[in-house]
UniProtKB/TrEMBL annotation:
Keywords: ATP-binding, Nucleotide-binding
Residue spans of biased composition, Pro residues class: 286-299
Domain of life, per lineage: Bacteria
InterPro entries attached to this UniProt entry: AAA+_ATPase, ATPase_Atu1862_pred, HerA-like, HerA_central, P-loop_NTPase
Pfam family, one: DUF87
Protein name in the entry: ATP-binding protein
Leader sequence segment: none
Cell membrane keyword on record: no
Domain annotation AAA+ ATPase: ranges: 24-214
Length: 482
């Protein structure tokens, strides 16, 4: 079935449309400076294809939530949910083929990247039975796939960039058609931009962006000046889903409006200057009225709940807390680690975020200063996810020494295997290994096992019945077949 989406008018007034089936197979990149009409273009595409294909929108500014009233999209405020809920939401969106707008407006830049990474990864990791075709629109894509490092944590940047790369490079076979829009091509990671076969290039002024846009459109460098002269709302289109030659298209009108609109000139107040000065510096006993909230405040995260509990208890300063023996401190740390691992949301949160939780829980447990720094906590967290909460057991010295050949984030999966091998228990499932690694991806868990085996730390065997067992030659331990 061929479905064409009317996008607007060409130079001669003829209709210009996008072949929706071809778009699903070849992806789309939209570029243009702020105010060039990118969001208007995306809204036109979403409105005209609504009801024809599932639509999933990553919306950093909350502009597309207005699609919900007219076209039935589910609008979700990410700030109201934890990472685990976002991952479950993504899985259900794929299962039930629901069109959704995920608004990231209430989050800071790092929170937006972390949320988008978790959501896109869960879309990508959906079971094969749920690989239905869907348009995945990411506005302001340079925020989630930056070309260089920024002020966010490196693990967050890598997770977000990896999720965007998977969407554009490998999403097609899973039914995910990436549509990314960016203000500047120079700020967007090249391996994300290069996977698009369709382009809609709007007005831009910087030479480096004009040159890259001209290259993608197959134009000569001297023709790149035309990109600077494009009117607002007009784009140069090229690609198998649109046109085989660069074609200028003026995007047509839309039926819904964004919550934020372009600024318009308004008349200035006509009051005399002395009256305005009096209004600005007038005294008063009553405080100014609080602004009306736009929406309900986000649900508190576990760490915020702990902070509130500490404030309500008016805890004593660290200097007033009784000294603890080494045994007591070790017991408190083990109990805190046990509580963190038991929290369902902790599996989707990074060690740097959980470390804040750890310090607060230690404080509430009676430790004035946390006994572990961030690297030490990361290692102990990996051990705890494998079920080892104490480091006093001498029988584990060999396993911990062997694990030093691996990165700290792989300590948990290795110790999970070592624990099963030491006890002669069945080999842990891929799901258990993935959970100990802090991911929901079974493919990532299998690649992790392959890496550990490549370091000659484990040997994996599959018998004729298809049951797997894993041996650790250096320790002389082996799991039972499962």
């Amino acid at each position: 079935m061929t479905v064409r989406v009317d996008m607007g008018a060409g130079p001669g007034g003829q209709a210009v449309s996008i072949d929706l089936e071809e778009l699903l197979a070849t992806r789309l990149l939209v570029q243009g400076n702020s105010g060039s009409g990118k969001s208007h273009l995306l809204r036109r595409l979403l409105e005209k294809s609504a009801g024809q294909v599932q639509q999933i929108v990553i919306d950093p500014e909350g502009d597309f939530v207005t699609l919900a009233d007219r076209y039935g999209h589910v609008a979700v405020e990410a700030a109201d949910h934890g990472v685990g809920e976002i991952q479950r939401l993504a899985a259900r969106v794929r299962e039930h083929r629901a069109s959704l707008v995920l608004s990231l407006e209430g989050l800071e830049a790092e929170g937006q990247m972390r949320c988008a990474a978790a959501f896109l990864a869960a879309l990508f990791d959906a079971p094969r039975d749920h690989w239905y075709p869907a348009l995945v629109v990411v506005d302001e894509a340079q925020l989630f796939a930056p070309s260089g490092g920024g002020e966010v944590a490196e693990d967050v940047r890598r997770a977000s960039l990896g999720a965007m790369t998977n969407l554009m490079c490998r999403g097609r076979k899973r039914g995910l058609a990436g549509i990314v829009a960016t203000q500047r091509l120079a700020k967007l990671a090249k391996n994300v931009a290069a996977e698009a076969s369709n382009f809609l290039m709007g007005r831009t002024f910087l030479d480096i962006d004009m040159a890259r846009a001209a290259d993608l459109l197959g134009m000569e460098r001297r023709q790149a000046e035309a990109i600077r002269d494009l009117p607002r709302g007009t784009f140069l289109a090229l690609g198998p889903a649109i046109s085989r030659r660069p074609l200028e298209v003026a995007i047509g009108p839309v039926e819904t409006l964004a919550r934020s609109v372009s600024p318009k000139l308004l008349p200035l107040p006509s009051a005399p200057a002395e009256d305005l000065q009096g209004l600005l510096f007038a005294g008063g006993d009553e405080p100014p009225p609080a602004p009306e909230p736009v929406r309900a405040p986000p649900a508190p995260l576990p760490s915020e709940q702990l902070l509130a509990a500490m404030a309500s208890r008016a805890a004593a300063p660290a200097s007033a807390m009784p000294a603890r023996s080494d045994e007591e401190s070790a017991a408190i740390v083990a109990e805190v680690l046990r509580a963190i691992v038991a929290d369902a949301d902790s599996a989707g949160r990074s060690a740097s975020v959980l470390y804040q939780d750890f310090t607060i829980r230690c404080r509430m447990g009676g430790l004035g200063q946390p006994p572990l720094d961030l690297p030490g906590f990361t290692r102990r967290l990996s051990m705890a996810r494998a079920g080892l909460y104490s480091v006093d057991d001498a029988d584990w010295d060999g396993a911990l020494e062997t694990a030093r050949l691996l990165p700290d984030d792989m300590l948990g999966p290795f110790l999970l295997l070592a624990k099963a091998a030491r006890e002669g228990a069945p080999t842990p499932s891929d799901e258990a290994i993935a959970q100990s690694y802090g991911t929901a991806s079974l493919g990532r868990a299998r690649r992790l096992l392959q890496y550990i085996e490549s370091r000659e730390l484990i040997v994996s065997r599959v018998d004729l019945a298809g049951k797997r067992s894993i041996a650790i030659p250096r320790l002389g331990w082996s799991t039972a077949a499962a």
